[in-house]
Amino acid sequence: MGRELQKKKNKSSTMKPKRRKPKSKKVTIDNPIVREHWDKKLTVSQNFRKLGLAQNLNNTAGGSEKFLDGTTASVDKLSTIRRKLATTMEPAQAQIVRDPKTGAIIQIIEPEGNSNPLNDPLNELSDSEMSEFDGFAHIPEQTSQHPVISQLEEAARHGVKQTRKQSEREQEWCQRLVEKHGDNYKAMFMDRKLNPMQQTIGDIRKRIDKWQKEGRAVEV
Questions:
Q1: What protein family does this chain belong to (predicted)?
Q2: Which of 136, 134, 93, 131 minimizes the C-alpha distance to 115?
């Protein structure tokens, strides 16, 4: 009998290469608004970009500034600070006023003008120029949004809140607690047999109140 098993092993032939079509993961879209505007001919990234949605929230934002007229201005990092800050302070002149009796320094009179010992490139701006700063007024306000995003926001504002339904096991657990301890929630919390996961008193009260409002209260 052992010989027959060996013969079966010898009959194994070389496997012929088979070409299989690569498996493509089917994209399931639960949201009806996104499903309506989804283009099956485009990739997931292309569809998200078309709908104005973010595919990956971990990507660094920025890189280009888009205006309403369609023009794009690239963002130059540290464009306002191009000069290297000095690591040492340059020598400057000042008038020192000393006490004639003790010789202690009473006052240091600096020369007129904006002192800039650290070579701060922004120090050249006068106070009047700084006061005229209008924030980001040069950036146009966003007056219109993507239609898909507007529909999603509208659906979120008028969405129906779904209430969680208690499972049969949770209902049975609440009933057993009420049958044993009545309305003593502290005893329910201390019951290691019925409350092995140590649910808090507030959590137990919330679950039992919901169970009683649904008409499943029991007479103790």
A1: Belongs to the NOP16 family.
A2: 93
The three-point CA angle 10-15-17 to 5° equals 170
Among 206, 184, 183, 180, CA closest to 194: 180
Report residue 74 as tokens.
Answer: 């690239």
Per residue in 52-74, pLDDT (tens digit) is 887 776 655 544 555 555 555 44
Q: Which long-range contacts (CB under 8 A, 24 or more apart) does 48-52 make?
A: 51/146, 51/148, 51/149, 52/145, 52/146, 52/148, 52/149
Angle at 167 between CA 163 and CA 168, to 5 degrees: 145
pTM: 0.34
Alpha-carbon distance 78 to 76, whole Å? 6
Give the domain ranges of the chain: 168-213
**CA 197, 200, 204, 209: dihedral to nearest 10 degrees?**
-160
Token match 């009998």: residue?
1
Residue 146 structure tokens: 């993507």
